[in-house]
Amino acid sequence: MLRDIDDQQCATNEPRESEERYRRLVELANDAILVIDSESGKLLYTNSQLEALAGRSRDELIGRHFTSLYPERYRASHEALFREMVGKGGFISNTLCLQRRDGQLVPVEISANVLELRNRCVLQQIVRDISGRSPAGVKQ
């Protein structure tokens, strides 16, 4: 009987432990990870790396349109690229410049996938700071 109770407790703790493990993996990632609503374009989730990269707090980022991360003159083209990504189910890689709160441009490489999360179609983006690389090929 004690073994059955122990087995039940382990089974109950497994989903919680698994969720915590994945939360830590995402939070401790070296790259920024974003989840964007595919219909509205609003940020639903981001890890702490985007806070550091964008120079903005998570509270300032969540609920904003993803194009607010980029220079204003390129937002329409980034919106079009976003719609294309959603239509195709994502893309492997693209190089853009993110604009920090202080106006500084940071070259980034983005990879994205469309997935369903809690019955909602979202775009997951991995954003890597490539400012240490050669600037050739970076689209603003």
> What would you report as the Rg, rounded to the nearest angstrom?
18 Å
Count of DSSP-assigned helices: 4
Q: Mean pLDDT, rounded to whole units?
A: 84
CATH superfamily of the largest domain: PAS domain
What's the overall geometry? Answer: globular
The largest pleated sheet is described as: 5 strands, antiparallel
Provide the domain count.
2
Number of strands: 5
Which percent band covers the strand fraction?
25-35%
Spans of 5+ residues with little confidence (pLDDT < 50)?
A: none
SSE pattern, N- to C-terminal:
HEEHHHEEE
CATH topology of the largest domain: Beta-Lactamase
Q: Strand sequence of the main sheet, in spatial order? A: 2-1-5-4-3
The percent of residues in helical segments reads 25-40%
CATH class categorisation of the largest domain: Alpha Beta
Distance between the termini: 65 Å
Task: Explain what this protein looks like in three dimensions.
With 140 residues, the protein is α+β, with helices and mostly antiparallel strands. The chain folds into 2 domains: 1-29; 31-129, Beta-Lactamase (2-Layer Sandwich). The chain is 36% helix and 29% strand. The protein is built from 4 helices and 5 strands. The chain has helices at 2-27, 48-54, 58-61, 75-88; strands at residues 32-37, 43-46, 90-99, 105-116, 121-129. The protein has a 5-stranded antiparallel sheet with strand order 2-1-5-4-3. The longest helix is centred in the first third of the chain and has 26 residues, at 2-27. The radius of gyration is 18 Å and the shape is globular.
